[in-house]
């Protein structure tokens, strides 16, 4: 352990602002990227289900008309 | 090896392969990255010249190395897509590009936060910094070029071409600190010699690097799966896999 206390750890020997800025930006961007990638998966599945349901409705409608 | 590799050119096989890999890659990436970063932040010693700012190294160097190896990976996929017309190779170019762009942005931003206290400036038009900025523009160029064509096939080809041409920037970034007099320091790890970093700092650095690497591979798997579904959504196997008729 390199620090005596938690406030010592946050201060980083006076360079706290730059170090926490760097780590904050890094983790902010990484978490944003991960969330975006999962959102893409969800968006595709939603869109895919909608398309399937629509195709099904059209099929049912056509069948009803030709009866 | 090619006997093992060849079936992966089939979208369906690759989709399931990436699906099996993804959870392991993602969980180990999170664990190893946090472990490496915490080691670097709390337990690794200060630098005798740079004091605590040296702790930025545990995110700066991994993201910078990853920005370059991710680009190399993308360029190889682009080359395969152009020469052998492998569909999944072209899709993976676009799956990889945004991930590499984020790593490049991280390396630039962390570099700026390190440069301000140590060099006295956020930004300098130094050879290493400029060539790394060009790398970011290359990634954005690949994404933008693909989006600029209404035909996905044409867009993919043009974007792949740019990705292959842009590989020339990778050795320029790597050797920029030797070829020009730069503000940026020289290489301490990626050189043909024993690393000039003390083990107390080298280990957390290598572990953080592994964490970044695994995260990149996990996200490439995830995005490639989405891309495969997107392109193959009218094929019967997708409907069978996702359970709809």
UniProtKB/TrEMBL annotation, chain A:
It is a single-pass membrane protein. Belongs to the CcmD/CycX/HelD family. The chain crosses the membrane at residues 17-39. The keyword DNA repair does not apply. Keywords: Cell inner membrane, Cell membrane, Cytochrome c-type biogenesis, Membrane, Transmembrane, Transmembrane helix, Transport. It is found in: Cell inner membrane. GO terms for cellular component: plasma membrane. This is Heme exporter protein D. InterPro entries: Haem_export_protD_CcmD (IPR007078), Heme_exporter_D (IPR052075). GO terms for biological process: cytochrome c biosynthetic process; cytochrome complex assembly; heme transport. It comes from Alkalimonas amylolytica. Pfam families: CcmD. Required for the export of heme to the periplasm for the biogenesis of c-type cytochromes.
TrEMBL record, chain B:
Belongs to the CcmC/CycZ/HelC family. It is a multi-pass membrane protein. The keyword Transmembrane helix applies. Its main location: membrane. This is Heme exporter protein C. GO terms for cellular component: plasma membrane. Coiled coil: none annotated. NCBIfam families: ccmC (TIGR01191). GO terms for molecular function: heme binding; heme transmembrane transporter activity. It is found in: Cell inner membrane; Membrane. PANTHER family: CYTOCHROME B_B6 PROTEIN-RELATED, HEME EXPORTER PROTEIN C. Residues 6-184 form the Cytochrome c assembly protein domain. Required for the export of heme to the periplasm for the biogenesis of c-type cytochromes. The keyword Nucleus does not apply. InterPro entries: Cyt_c_assembly, Cyt_c_biogenesis_CcmC, Cyt_c_biogenesis_CcsA/CcmC. One of its GO terms (biological process) is cytochrome complex assembly. The chain crosses the membrane at residues 21-44, 56-84, 91-109, 129-149, 161-181, 201-222. Keywords: Cell inner membrane, Cell membrane, Cytochrome c-type biogenesis, Membrane, Transmembrane, Transmembrane helix, Transport.
């Amino acid at each position: 352990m390199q620090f005596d206390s938690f406030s010592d750890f946050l201060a980083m020997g006076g360079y706290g602002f730059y170090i926490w800025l760097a780590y904050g930006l890094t983790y902010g961007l990484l978490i944003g990227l991960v969330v975006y990638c999962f959102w893409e998966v969800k968006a595709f599945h939603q869109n895919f289900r909608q398309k399937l349901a629509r195709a099904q409705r059209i099929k049912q409608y056509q069948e009803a008309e030709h009866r | 090896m090619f006997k093992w590799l060849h079936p992966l050119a089939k979208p369906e096989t690759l989709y399931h392969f990436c699906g099996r890999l993804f959870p392991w890659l993602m969980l180990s990436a999170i664990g190893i990255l946090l472990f490496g970063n915490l080691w670097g932040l709390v337990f690794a010693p200060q630098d005798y010249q740079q004091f605590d700012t040296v702790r930025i190294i545990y995110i700066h160097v991994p993201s910078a190395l990853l920005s370059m190896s991710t680009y190399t990976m993308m360029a190889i996929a682009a080359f395969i897509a152009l020469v052998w017309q492998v569909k999944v190779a072209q899709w993976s170019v676009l799956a990889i590009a945004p991930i590499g762009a984020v790593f490049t942005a991280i390396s630039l931003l962390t570099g700026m936060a390190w440069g301000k206290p140590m060099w006295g400036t956020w930004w300098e038009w130094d050879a290493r910094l400029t060539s790394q900025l060009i790398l970011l523009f290359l990634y954005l160029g690949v994404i933008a070029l693909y989006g600029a064509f209404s035909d996905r096939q044409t867009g993919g080809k043009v974007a792949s071409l740019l990705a292959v041409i842009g590989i020339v920037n990778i050795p320029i970034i790597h050797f920029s600190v030797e070829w020009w007099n730069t503000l940026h320091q020289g290489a301490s790890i990626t050189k043909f010699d024993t690393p000039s970093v003390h083990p107390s700092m080298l280990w957390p650095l290598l572990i953080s690097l592994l964490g970044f690497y695994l995260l990149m591979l996990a996200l490439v798997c995830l995005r490639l799966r989405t891309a495969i579904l997107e392109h193959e959504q009218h094929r019967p196997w997708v409907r069978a896999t996702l359970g709809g008729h």
